[in-house]
Design a protein that fits this description.
By secondary structure, the chain is an alpha+beta fold. The protein contains 4 helices and 9 strands, in the order βααβββββββαβα. Helix 1 packs antiparallel against helix 2. The protein is elongated. The chain starts with a strand and ends with a helix. The C terminus is likely disordered.
Length: 156
């Protein structure tokens, strides 16, 4: 059994918002609690803190011989046996894949290099390899990038 945790992808942006918010709070204090810098400072700290403390970072993907499972702090969100996976769209060059569980709430994006996702997954290369090893080859579609594959399937 292997466990892969969701992690914030834009930690630097969140910490920058917190830092700038704190700086604006100091400026507001020096200026006699000026409303605009104080409000934007509090907002920056709150938004950065909310992102870093999101419940999303409690999600984990667990793989074992039978399948994969996505859990959060409350328990199992969904579980898919390897044989229940409808298809996997995979980009080996970016180590990105989409696991289609048949319904949106039973699907998973493993974001790789350049993937448009607000999260990252620890040991993503290992998770990517595990998925491709366990899912039967007839259910795997290999593409250059997921974005190009999505664009090619949209009607003009």
């Amino acid at each position: 059994m292997s466990t892969f945790r969701f992690r914030p992808r834009y930690r630097g942006v969140a910490w920058t918002a917190i830092g700038l918010g704190g700086g604006l709070g100091v400026v507001a204090t020096v200026l006699g609690f000026a409303a605009m810098p104080l409000t934007t400072g509090i907002l920056g700290i709150a938004l950065g803190g909310a992102y870093l403390n999101s419940r999303t970072w409690k999600f984990v993907v667990v793989t074992d011989a039978d399948g994969l499972e996505v859990r959060d702090g409350k328990g199992t969100r969904f579980r898919l046996r390897w044989t229940e996976i409808v298809r996997v769209v995979a980009s080996p060059s970016t180590k990105t894949c989409f696991v289609d569980g048949g319904r949106p709430e039973h699907s998973l994006l493993v974001p790789g290099d350049g993937a448009p996702a607000p999260y990252a997954i620890t040991d993503r290369d290992e998770l990517f390899a595990t998925i491709l090893e366990r899912v039967t080859p007839d259910r795997i579609e290999t593409v250059e990038t997921l974005e190009r594959a999505t664009a090619a399937t949209k009607p003009a």
